[in-house]
Amino acid sequence: xxxxxxxxxxxxxxxxxxxxxxxxxxxxxxxxxxxxxxxxxxxxxxxxxxxxxxxxxxxxxxxxxxxxxxxxxxxxxxxxxxxxxxxxxxxxxxxxxxxxxxxxxxxxxxxxxxxxxxxxxxxxxxxxxxxxxxxxxxxxxxxxxxxxxxxxxxxxxxxxxxxxxxxxxxxxxxxxxxxxxxxxxxxxxxxxxxxxxxxxxxxxxxxxxxxxxxxxxxxxxxxxxxxxxxxxxxxxxxxxxxxxxxxxxxxxxxxxxxxxxxxxxxxxxxxxxxxxxxxxxxxxxxxxxxxxxxxxxxxxxxxx
Length: 304
Fold this sequence. Notes:
The chain has helices at 18-26, 54-58, 75-107, 109-123, 129-165, 177-181, 183-202, 206-214, 218-225, 229-240, 244-263, 269-288; strands at residues 2-6, 12-17, 35-38, 45-46. By secondary structure, it is mainly alpha-helical. It has two domains: 1-41, no CATH class; 75-288, no CATH class. It has a four-stranded antiparallel beta sheet with strand order 2-1-3-4. Strand 1 (2-6) and strand 2 form a beta hairpin. The longest helix is centred in the middle third of the chain and has 37 residues, at 129-165. The radius of gyration is 22 Å and the shape is elongated. It starts with a strand and ends in a 16-residue tail after the last helix.
């Protein structure tokens, strides 16, 4: 029997098997008052009203472990979790990838138009001088706008993927959460972070690579932890740095998956992109969640 629950954050998780519910009870993440319903049931009940969990509720709940600030990055777990979740939600993930690609194209349409005009102008030589003059400012303005809007889209994509990694059901509306909830901090983050990484690349490349990896989680920290753009960048950098090499390795693996997907006539990207995103989301949960795949700790009434 599988069940759905509502966590202390108000989000729905599942379906998950009975054993997982027992684990969440033992971890103190669910109590007598937590909302639950069996798969296929019409109404919500409480965990305490279900006799199959009476034994788990009666057992003493161990105190939560002291916060260590990080649980590390397990590359094998990130890959296996990503493939498992893609198998479970492949249709929703493919649809989300297509929608995100369309939105990304729309966000960068000005820059693309400017780039095309510059290329045409260059090919026409002196006859294309006017096209080049028009295309150049369009390209730079479009790049700026695309970066800002792309970071907002990234916030929504992280929200979508992190929900799936934590056991929730995919929700296409999450893709637009960055535009709705955090447009200003995400927009500023995209510009400042991009400038910092660009300067790092110009300084012998290596600093730019370090920052690109270290800032990997600044976007979800704005979305999930309500941090400002600078706090998010610093929190991500300080948290990732002790695990920089595993994170760098995970990024290389994600790039390799994307290249393989592109080689499969481009169609493989419909699988490669969500799998890569799930890998990174799993790494985020491993570093910033108390338990990577469980819902956040219950913040409602506690067990008597």
